[in-house]
Amino acid sequence: MNHMQKAAEVLAEARRIVFFTGAGISAESGIPTFRDKLTGLWAKHDPERLETADAFRENPALVWGWYLWRRRQVTVAQPNAGHHSISNLADAGWDVSVITQNIDDLHERAGVDVVIHLHGTLLKVKCFACHRPIALEPEQLSISTEGELVEPPRCSRCNGRARPGVVWFRENLPEDAWLSAVRLVSTCDVLISVGTSGVVRPAADLPEMAIRANATVIHVNLEDVSLGSDREIMLLGSAAQVLPELLRCLGVRE
Ligand code: BJW
Ligand code: ZN
Known about the structure:
Blueprint (H helix, E strand, L loop, with lengths): L2 H11 L2 E6 L2 H4 L13 H4 L2 H4 L2 H6 L1 H17 L4 H11 L3 E6 L5 H4 L5 E3 L2 E8 L34 E5 L8 H12 L3 E5 L11 H7 L3 E6 L10 E5 L2 H12 L4
Parallel strand pairs: 1-2, 1-6, 2-3, 6-7, 7-8
Antiparallel strand pairs: 4-5
Helix pairs in contact: 1-11, 7-11, 9-10
The structure holds ligand BJW and zinc ion (ZN).
């Protein structure tokens, strides 16, 4: 039996399935990953200058401009076959939950109602000083070019600067999201980890937690990212190819 058939067999027997996704699932929608050597965001940009609170303090216009540019990439992107496979599996009757590290909304736009965003979301804006949400007009969110410096708008309550509602390095994950993720992972039958390098903690600990709770972990990735447990199945390939194939193997209609 090949890995794909084995994964389909495990899923056929499973009830609770958790998808744990990373940048790789959105790559085929045109949103760059972080760490891919040629196409990743960090092949060209230094995360310490753009994705930390210190970077924002030092150069808020650079960081705000960077996130407006990324926001535009997300708004023009469409969910791909990988995202759609997840909602198709839920529609076919499995109990499916999605925990994502991604700050885009492509799972939601593919029809998943509840998505746990461990690293926040690009589409919400909050105050850097008082942390309250800030509502902005569409014209305040437009940008013309990559690398443009844009002074962030100000909070109407405390005059603090607007920042994206994402989790930067050395910031804590939203507590409710993290607790829900741990609960789901501890009680699932199968965790399907899609398109993540598995290096950023604490999110990266979730697959191991699932293994410790006796779940099977299926990885879908262009590279072998398995952790060395005999409860893992590695499906090599792109998310938009492998996930629909897995559903076909299971007999789920697209
Ligand atoms: C495909 C594909 C296709 C491609 N199909 N596959 C212990 C030791 C040292 C440091 C730490 C530690 N514990 C915590 C830390 C610090 C840090 C950390 O983990 N650092 C490590 C890198 C070492 N963690 C944190 O800072 C976290 N906070 C925290 O721990 O707070 C407590 C604390 C306080 C004070 C001090 C220290 C700790 C917060 C982490 C926040 C992460 N934020 C980012 C940016 C979000 C905003 C933004 O987007 O700008 O989140 S970083 C970035 O990485 C982003 C992602 O969600 C995250 C994970 O990346 P992901 O999704 O895995 O993408 P890639 O690019 O890495 O991988 C893509 C994968 O897809 C690859 O495997 C490809 O092969 C594959 N692929 N195309 C399928 N088509
Ligand atoms: Zn404020």
